[in-house]
Write a structure and sequence with these properties.
The chain has seven helices and ten strands. By secondary structure, the chain is α/β, with parallel strands linked by helices. A five-stranded mixed beta sheet has the order 3-2-1-9-10. Strands 4-5-6-8-7 form a five-stranded mixed beta sheet, with no helix packed on it. The longest helix has 19 residues, at 83-101. Residues 68-73 form the Serine/threonine specific protein phosphatases domain.
Length: 219
């Protein structure tokens, strides 16, 4: 089994399509699984197309295409239910998503898309690796994590060098160099697609917890 974990898309659907194509070519002859690390919307121009693409792929092959929730999906969902929360979302890139959908408010997004976003889990554990959007609270067991930390944590997790019981695969914190950030206990795959950087996939096999290589789609 080859697993391809893909970092923060942020509406850059042409990079997403290109990267998935390269991963499929790379994995020919193997059983494949994709794990998306969240943040499909905001900042980039094509959030609607990105969500539609991922929704379609997951519905077609749910066991082979796992989509996690990111903090931007959480912001969007909160904005769809509360006007005050919508202002916070707009300050964090939500306006680009509204333009992509051609609507004025988050509550006006297609019901199918909103319902799909609500179903997204916050983690995926394959026994070797924990896939999550932002990271984990290093002071807690991976089975005792709060949703807020899974979606939002940064410094306490990023600076911690301990073994967490799983190799942690995450995004959330954009890397200005456009390259994945690999450590003994984790890898960050947010290489800044939402800021005109590349979109990155880490390739994993069924033996080693760490990635065996990286694949990128570059603007």
């Amino acid at each position: 089994m080859r697993t391809y974990a893909i970092g923060d898309v942020h509406g850059m659907v042409y990079l997403l399509r290109r990267l998935i194509s390269r991963c499929l070519q790379d994995g020919r002859g193997n059983a494949l699984r994709f794990v998306m690390l969240g943040d499909y919307v905001d900042r980039g121009a094509d959030a609607k197309e990105a969500v539609q693409q991922l929704l379609h792929l997951q519905k077609k092959r749910p066991a082979k295409f796992i989509c996690l929730r990111g903090n931007h999906e959480a912001l969007l969902l909160a904005a769809s239910e509360d006007a005050a929360a919508e202002q916070q979302w707009l300050r964090n890139g939500g306006a680009a998503t509204l333009r992509s959908y051609g609507v004025e408010h988050a509550r006006d997004l297609p019901a199918e898309h909103l319902e799909w976003l609500k179903t997204l889990p916050t983690t995926h554990d394959d026994g070797l690796r924990l896939f999550v959007h932002a990271g984990i609270d290093p002071g807690k067991s991976i089975h005792q994590q709060a949703e807020h930390d899974l979606l939002w944590i940064r410094d306490r997790f990023l600076k911690d060098k301990r073994d967490h019981g799983r190799f942690v695969v995450h995004g959330h914190t954009p890397l200005s160099e456009g390259l994945p950030d690999l450590h003994p206990n984790r890898v960050n795959l947010d290489t800044g697609a939402g800021y005109r950087g590349p979109l990155t996939a880490a390739v994993f096999d069924g033996v080693s917890a760490r990635p065996i290589r990286f694949i990128q789609a570059v603007p």
